[in-house]
# Entry
Amino acid sequence: MDSESKLARLKSLLNEVQDLYAIIGLLQWDLETYMPPAGNHGRSYQLSTLTRIHHLKFTSPEIGLLLEDLKPYAAQLDPDSDNTRLIKVTDRIYQKKIRVPADLVAAFARATGEAHPAWEKARAESNFSIFRPHLETIIDLRRQYADCFTPYDHVYDPLLDDFEPGLKTAEVQAIFAPLRAKQVELVQAITTRPQVDDSFLHQPFDVDNQWKFGVEVITRFGFDWQRGRQDRSTHPFTIGIGPGDVRITTRFLPDYAPSALFSTTHECGHALYEMGVDPELARTPLEQAASYAIHESQSRLYENIVSRSRHFWIFFYPRLRELFPTQLGNVSLDAFYRAINKVEPSLIRVEADEATYNLHPMLRLELEMALMEGSLEAKDLPEAWNAAMQAYLGLTPPNDAQGVLQDIHWAHGHLGYFATYALGNLIAGQLWERVLEDIPDLPEQFERGEFAGLTAWMREKIHRHGAKFEPQELVERVTGTKIDSAPYLRYLSKKYGDIYGFSM
# Structure
């Protein structure tokens, strides 16, 4: 069999692997949206079975032999070509997967399937003890998973690598160390200034009109309703079933309209990425995002840098007042803009303002590392969470629902994920500086309700490449540097200096 035939065979096998991955995603989406509660037990076994089959098919000896045979062929091609990158990325994933037993993969899928409803019940009742045994199982399975990759620099490295290929725990700590101090300094500067009044945001807002407004906004952003849909869930999320099927969810607070809007624009940023991947990469490992931080850079950019900007609201605020005349009829654009950008340490990560947000994933990173190291046990997690919240944000949660149970990620077994949120913010800041160099009048375009220029730039620079490049490599290609906190800090200092009347 010649190299071209071997490549075709590899792609055929990978197509089947990706089809299984898409089916698993569809079952997960259904679990979190429309599945009857009693269906969970059976669904956990379905997910376990399919995940095991997916793992076995990806780690088949045939794929391994094809990859070895194709490496010399790939070395002769353009290093940035789709085929070269497909062979490189697939080999990287393959080499990692073959170190993990299929039974461990299946056990993890089953455990997380059972954990999801337990987390929902625990959160609803604000009772960590309901979720604790499931979390203990997940932590044990994650430690077993990490042990498949010894020797490692840190037990957390294999988990982080699942979300950020090529990135080490020490690198993330080095990025975050100066960031925390500077964000605390920014928040302290803000607290010396008179606080913004946002009381008018805390009143009844019709949920149907909230939905309608969010749909109008993301349609302007370029969300393709022929290839996507929006539903409701306890925790907003995005799942790409394939390039023609991208699902997002949002949630509504009837007494606080900004929550749904910014959840919707956040998930739209994710969806635009999924929709923008080059169709030539479909049904291969390259159709995924470069990393979760790159994915988060898109959601955080559309949610905050775009949707919380004055330029955005010059266009959209008249429409929002039209939908909510009683609540906003006497509220000026300036007052509204300042209110949605109010800085105040909060208990809930997804409701946090831009200036304090990064502190939330950073404290979760600290706790996850301790859980993996064994210096913190699950039974002590609520107390450790509360202590970290006090240290990072000066707040102590009054109950488990507003504390340790607020995020769904641990129920999904996603230890290693949270750092990607803060990294995504930093990358968003870098991309924003870069896109303004290429499209200087972009803010003025927003004022006219035009967002196609931004989305097209992101599609060309980020989306279309899928997983062809590792995160640090992609960021450097687009911005000229690896992940760097300086642009994001400049953005925050300028924006909040203007809002609160200070300079740094």
Remarks:
- The chain has 22 helices and three strands.
- The radius of gyration is 23 Å.
- The first strand starts at residue 228 and ends at 232.
